[in-house]
Structures are given as C-alpha cells and as structure tokens.
Design the sequence.
C-alpha cells in the first residue's frame, strides 16, 4: 500500500510539472509579443505548435517504443525544450526588443521537443501504475487532473507576478522543464520493444486515409478539420484581447483588464469539470448531439468575447471561458469515441492519429494562420501607437467573424453528417478522458 501511494504521489508531481511548463506561457505569450512589437506575428507562434504536432510526437514515440525508455526520452525532450525556452527568454532579456526570426526559431525548437512529452508522460504513468499493480482505470484520472491544476497554477503565477507581460514567462517555463528533466529519470523504467512492428506511417495515421472511401467517415474527418480551425484562436489572441482594454481610459482600472491570464484560467477549470458531463450527455444525446453541442459552444465562445468587456460586460468574458470546456472537451472526446467505434482494431490507432492530424494538426495550424493573417491583423492594429478604442471595435469584428464561421459549420454539420443509428456501448468517465486524448492544446486541456 505504501509503495502504491508513493507511485501515485510521484505521478501527480510529474503531471503537475508537465503542464505547468505549458501553462507558463501558452495563454499569456501574446501579451508579451504585443508589448515588444511582435503582435502581428502572434499567430506564427501558435501555428508552429500545430505544425510540429504533425510529426514530432510520432517520431519520438517510435524512438521511445523501440530504443530509448520513455522516462529517459521524457527527460531528454524536457531538457532540450527547457534549454531552448531559456535561450529564448535570455535572448529577449538581452535584446530588449527581440527580432522575430531569432526568437521564433528558439521557440520553435523548444516546442518541437515539448509537444511529444505529453504522450510520453502518459506512457510513463501507465507503466508505473501497471508495475505497482494498480488499476489504471481507477487511478489514472485523479492523477491526470493534477496536470490541469499545474497548468492553472502556472497561469496564475505568471499573472500575479506580472510575468504575463514579460520574457520572464519563457524563463519560468524553461526552469520548470529542467526540474522535470531531473525528476523524470527517477520514474520506473519503461521497457522498450525493438521488435515492435508499428511503422512510421501507422504512427502518423497515414494508413487510415483509406477511411475517406467511406462517405460517413469522410464527412466526419472533413468536419474535424473544419472545427479544428477554431482550436487555437482564443489561445492565440484571448489574453491579448482582454489585456487591450487597459489601454482604453474607460477600462484602464478594471481588474480583468490587468489580470487577463488569471481570468482565462477559468477556461482550464471548465475543462476539468466538463469532462464529468460527457458520459451523461453521450448516453442522452448520442455522439452527433454531443459534437453539435461542441460546435455551438464555439459560436458562444467567440460571440461572448465579441460582446464582452472588462467593465459591465465582464460576465460575458467569464461565460466565454466557461463554455470553452464544452467546446473543446465535448468535440475531442466524442470524436475520439466515434473513431473508436467505427474502425476495426487493425486500423484503430491509425484512425485516432488521423483524427488528431485533422484537428490539432492541420485544422489548428491552418486556422490559426488564417485567423491571424486575414482577420485579426486586418482589423486590429498591433503597433505601439495604435488607437486603442478603434482596436476594440476591430477585436469585436474579429470575434464575430469567428463566431459566424463556427455557426456555419454547425449548421452544415446538422444536415451533412449522419451518425450510426445505434451506439454499441455506454461510456465510463475513464473511457471519456482517455479516448479523447485530454487537452489540444494534449493540452489540459492544454492549451491546457
């Protein structure tokens, strides 16, 4: 019993650190970039997360399966991610006004090594629980939720230290990575299987493209891509938008305007709670109904931002954060379950990989790039001498455009997607969480 308790505690600490690394900058980075004249390039930093997610987790996963134990790969990847994030922070410190190519390159290398660690941390946790003779279904969810807690704590830390508006958020994240690097090597050894027959194509989900021959699956993956477009938009611009209110005299002293990162932490809390509603909703409304809820939740997520402000309209900003849990979790979990039910065992893992490619890979990357290039940068002036009042109108227009897009996708989904008439099984809490893959962002949700 004592050994089992010790394993659980070690895994809780590991998950806390894993997502605290991400929470230190994921939602606050835009505030700093805007303050140093890189506001017009914010979308590139978030687009890159989706790009590296297309291939790095699979490549690192194959290495961990066949050659290097997962706990050592976790340590190595966190070490490199932390090193380059620290270099990014110290470069910003020395440069004062960082140049985009240099900062972006250091950041891109860092996240290329960080993104695979989300899956590696899960592998280490399952291995440790199995070695201790513990039931993963019972013990993993209470451990994993501490990742969301770590993400939220990191958000609040950078908010109340005012690191949200400085390069110190990168340095904070880098040091957290190095701590986790040292900690990961103390975890139980994960055996490798050099004879594993899993190919790179299978790991990337490429052999699942044959599913496009099935009209129902083709429609599902197309809508997965179209909705994936929404996934990183508010992570990219949410805090930047809220923070912009403090430059307008009417809102300058509002608590929310000065604590944008703390306010958006409500989104992660909502994710943790909404996962509890999924089993009931799936049983009551079916997969199509739950996915449709997620789509309309994105309409509300963007729409509430459009009508909200940090003064009398702060309730709408809070509501936007609350519905985010439905928008993100319901779609990812229900979508993952649909893939699981509609594919055979021989192609199931590849199909899940394809689902992630279409949503968190291609969808999120392309969506963030389009949102930044053709919407936000068109209606919002990110320069230092911009008219703050005019920018609020530009932000409102941008959010309404995103809301309209989500609404159109929702309506099309109603008429063009047909789900199976009968669901084969009920869904437990653990199945809902593990099949959905947690937050895009792998993300604690995060973005966490």
Sequence:
């Amino acid at each position: 019993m004592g050994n089992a308790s010790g394993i659980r505690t070690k895994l809780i600490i590991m998950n806390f650190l894993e997502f605290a690394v991400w929470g230190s900058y994921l939602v606050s980075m835009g505030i700093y970039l805007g303050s140093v004249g890189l506001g017009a390039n914010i979308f590139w930093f978030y687009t890159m997360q989706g790009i590296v997610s297309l291939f790095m987790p699979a490549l690192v996963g194959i290495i961990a399966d066949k050659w290097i134990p997962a706990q050592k790969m976790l340590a190595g990847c966190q070490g490199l991610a932390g090193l380059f994030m620290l270099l990014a922070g110290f470069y910003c410190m020395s440069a004062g006004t960082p140049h985009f190519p240099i900062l972006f390159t250091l950041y891109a290398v860092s996240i290329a090594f960080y993104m695979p660690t989300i899956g590696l941390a899960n592998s280490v946790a399952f291995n440790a629980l199995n070695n201790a003779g513990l039931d993963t279904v019972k013990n993993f969810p209470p451990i994993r939720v501490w990742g969301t807690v770590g993400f939220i704590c990191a958000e609040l830390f950078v908010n109340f230290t005012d690191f949200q508006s400085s390069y110190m958020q990168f340095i904070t994240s880098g040091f957290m990575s190095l701590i986790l690097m040292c900690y990961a090597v103390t975890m139980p050894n994960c055996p490798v299987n050099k004879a594993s027959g899993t190919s790179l194509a299978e790991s990337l989900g490429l052999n699942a493209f044959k599913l496009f021959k099935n009209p129902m699956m083709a429609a599902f993956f197309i809508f997965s891509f179209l909705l994936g477009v929404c996934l990183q938009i508010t992570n990219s611009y949410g805090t930047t938008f809220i923070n912009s209110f403090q430059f307008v005299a009417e809102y300058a002293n509002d608590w929310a305007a000065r604590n944008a990162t703390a306010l958006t932490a409500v989104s992660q809390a909502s994710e943790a709670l909404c996962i509890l509603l999924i089993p009931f909703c799936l049983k009551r409304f079916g997969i199509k109904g739950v996915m449709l809820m997620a789509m309309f939740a994105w309409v509300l997520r963007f729409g509430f931002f459009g009508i909200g402000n940090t003064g009398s309209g702060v309730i709408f900003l809070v509501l936007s954060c609350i519905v985010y849990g439905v928008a993100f979790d319901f779609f990812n979990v229900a979508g993952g379950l649909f893939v699981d039910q509609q594919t055979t065992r021989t192609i199931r893992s590849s199909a899940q990989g394809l689902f992630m490619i279409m949503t968190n890979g291609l969808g999120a990357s392309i969506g963030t790039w389009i949102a930044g290039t053709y919407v936000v940068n068109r209606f919002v002036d990110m320069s230092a001498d911009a008219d703050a009042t005019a920018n609020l109108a530009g932000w409102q227009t941008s959010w309404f455009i995103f809301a309209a897009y989500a609404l159109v996708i929702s309506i099309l989904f109603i008429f063009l997607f047909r789900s199976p008439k009968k669901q084969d099984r009920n869904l437990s809490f653990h199945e809902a969480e593990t099949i959905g893959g947690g937050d895009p962002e792998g993300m604690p949700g995060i973005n966490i």
User: Anything to note?
Assistant: Residues 1-198 form a domain with the Growth Hormone; Chain: A; fold (CATH 1.20.1250.20). The chain has a mean pLDDT of 88.
